[in-house]
Amino acid sequence: MIKKNIVYFATFFFLIFKVNYAYSEFNNSIIISVGKYPITQIDLFKEIKLIAVLSGSEINDTNRLQIRDLAVNSLIKKTIKTAEVEKRQISKYSKKDLENLISQSANNLGVDKDGLKDILESNSLSYKKLIEKFQIDLKWNSMIFEIYKNKISINTVEVENRLKLELKKLEIDENNEEKIEEIKKNIVNQEKNKKLRMFSNSHYSNLERLIQVKFL
Hints:
Elements: H1 2-6, H2 10-18, E1 30-34, E2 37-40, H3 41-54, H4 64-87, H5 95-108, H6 113-122, H7 127-148, H8 156-170, H9 177-210, E3 213-215
Antiparallel strand pairs: 1-2, 1-3
């Protein structure tokens, strides 16, 4: 249903990108409501710019509608996650993972953290808002782990089979216990993360069905 309603914005945002509008020229009206949370025209315009900037893409006739659809879905998803972490009063998240996300975004653009700030600023985008966006995702991840950590089960046979394949591929000496343990730990973590992603997607889908999204 959400995807169908996105089409509503096609003509409006096609015109936006035909002209280099300043933010002040927008009527900052609410265009989407997600439960009690509003999303405005400026929210969407900035999200479109953010996606384009972070991906190093130039908005043109070929990709503008695709980027707009990504932006709409991104804002809805962020709003649903924000509502859930606020309701559950989630404040903890991995500072290390936050730094990794910042570094990854900067590296994708071939710059450091200060360079990322400069690029965002030159495009009238807020570095602080980007950090807040990352924090919401990380708080969500912390929440999912707390809710579902006791439901994570690892198939030991599958782990051992994967371990054998890795050892064979990497030609690891079977007496190298330290390296074997390291590889096994990585495999277990990968399996745990896979289960957490499954729980995350399921939890989000349930919320998406419950929260009313209106395109205004």
